[in-house]
Design brief:
about 210 residues; alpha/beta; two-stranded antiparallel ribbon; binds flavin mononucleotide
């Protein structure tokens, strides 16, 4: 593996539970693949291009199967740069807390920017074809409550199904989730135990990566 893109969607830096688990994952990864470059994209610190009338209009031109020109092509350059950075990685690590049953708005913004026709997917006669095939993804999440399969709140987990669906659309079928939960509902002791379990799982995930 040559390059992993680490996409960070929490603003909490050193106190982030999600990043504690990602830190263990990356440490194991560096041991296994010392030559692997880690490209860090911090969505709360780095600039993600806004979607404007011009860029959204550009998307509809592409959806109609046409090429961009003039103003729309110019406005599209920032989108193309973001997509090129995404596609330059062989694998992805997304570090995201659950926010309001789903993902933080910065991650949704990033997804809205990069998931573009002609670049990450295309329509075929019958179907949609993902264009980011043969790439691996690990998504590390932490949640205040417990949304695991045995929990009464499982149906409120709009985070994992959404991320599986949107990255599945672009052809990333190999997605491993490591969900640390509950982080807030049962207090500090329970949270620390769950973080430790998730860190162990992260190391095992790297072994198979
Ligand atoms: C804006 C916001 C919304 C949140 N929404 C949820 C939620 O819907 N469900 C939940 O279980 N926890 C929710 N939480 C709690 C976080 O998911 C939890 O504390 C997580 O461990 C934070 O991760 P971090 O330490 O990496 O930032 C929310 C936290 C914030 C700041």
């Amino acid at each position: 593996m040559r390059k992993i893109l680490h996409i960070i969607a929490t603003p909490r830096g050193d106190v982030s539970r999600t990043l504690k688990i990602s830190g263990s994952f990356l440490e194991s990864l560096k041991n296994k693949y010392p030559e692997c470059a880690i490209d860090t994209l911090d969505l709360f610190k780095d600039t993600i291009p806004p979607l404007t009338l011009k860029t959204v209009s550009g998307k509809y031109v592409l959806l109609a199967g046409k090429d961009l020109s003039g103003d729309l092509k110019e406005a599209w350059l920032d989108i193309e740069r973001a997509i090129a950075r995404f596609l330059s990685a062989d694998a992805y690590l997304i570090s995201t807390p659950m926010w309001n049953f789903s993902i933080p708005y910065v991650l949704k913004h990033y997804i809205d920017v990069i998931i573009q026709p002609k670049y990450l997917f295309r329509y075929t006669d019958k179907d949609v074809e993902g264009l980011a095939k043969n790439k691996k993804m690990v998504i590390i999440t932490s949640r205040g409550g417990d949304y695991s399969a045995s929990s009464p709140f499982h149906a409120n987990d709009y985070q994992e199904p959404y991320l599986r669906a949107i990255f599945g659309l672009v052809g990333i079928a190999d997605i491993v989730f490591i969900n640390a939960q509950p982080m807030d509902a049962l207090g500090q002791g329970a949270a620390e135990e769950k973080i430790k379990q998730a860190q162990d799982l992260a190391a095992i995930t790297v072994e198979k990566f």
